Write the structure tokens for this entry.
Amino acid sequence: MKYKKGLTLLSAGVMAAVLSLGVTGCNEKTQPQATDIVAEKTTQVTKLEGKTFGTFYYITVPGGYPGGKETLQKDAEFVFKKVSDAISTFDKNAEIARFNDFKSTEDFVISGYLANIIEEVSRQSLRVDQAMDPTVGPLVNLWGFGPSGDIKKSPTDELIAQTKSYVGLDKFELRRAGNTAYLRKADPRVALDLSTIGEGLAADELAALMDEKNIPSYMIAVAGAIRSKGGNADGKLWRVGVEDPLSQGAKVFQVVCPQGMAISTAGSYRNFFLDEDTNKFYSHVIDTKTGRPIDHRTVSVTVIDKSAMVTDALDTGLLVLGAQEAVQWGNKNSTPVYAIEIDDEGKQVATYSRAFEPYLKCVVNQNIATAAPPAQGSN
Ligand code: ADP
Ligand code: MG
């Protein structure tokens, strides 16, 4: 969860330019006019931005946060600490870091909170044929993207093969007994890495906290993972931009309206190193099947789902699989998936699953199941 970017909040200028996107000529008499208005306009907005997990976060609350910016900051920091205390591999005292340091095949007691996270990530891992795999830790370290520091050279084939021998979902066991949860390694060198879901989990936790406070509209972006609800200060649907992977700054490649759903992007273009001997770039996203950083032309994958932790888990796995498989997977699983790859001429080409289409049309879509729980009531 370091350096992750991929989704950008749009500036007002870009928003105005894309307003006509997807507004179809429907018959006014028989059908409601296509609109992107979802809330009242407001001039009272609480905004907060800062750094967490070695990356940036931006929060906007049209209508204002109860208790103002200070309370929002306290709430955000509480959530980031909760997530970091559980899953950071950089903070030696975090639960995962302590488990990784525990070089034993004996039981290791973990919190129910961490157990739930590991269970959910393992479930998502299986859905993408372990292309995203929480046991990738030793390979991440081997390639210099983990807490053990940078390398500038690729490891030997022998070392890669050796490390792969203790990577895989079958290399650890999670067990519960009453209120206690235990992790057990099949090999003392096993190390878990949940970094890829950190931003999504933090965005979900903060969204849940705001839902509890009955805040009708918000936008929470923890690097490339975004949760939003309601509308922006103009009362319109939130718009986010899938980043242009080839541009240096934050340039928008595609405007998307998440319509209350979670959205996140995994990219191979922000965190990498150059091996000067082979003159090759190596990304921080690792294919556990080869034990090496991904080596194909797919540069980013964006996923939409109810939970940002789920999208954040899936985007990494689908990036490993590459654009074609990722979009096929999206079609098979009725999941919105949007991939960008580089073609022979060096141009960026986007492909997306059918379920992604409604999110490209920035008009209110009643058919989209929003992240909010379904309304209770008769019928
Ligand atoms: P992004 O999603 O933008 O690529 P993240 O920071 O969310 O960036 O995830 C990348 C991190 O996930 C890596 O730094 C590494 O710790 C971990 N990681 C790398 N490859 C995998 C993989 N195949 N499965 C799970 N986690 C991975
Ligand atoms: Mg991810």
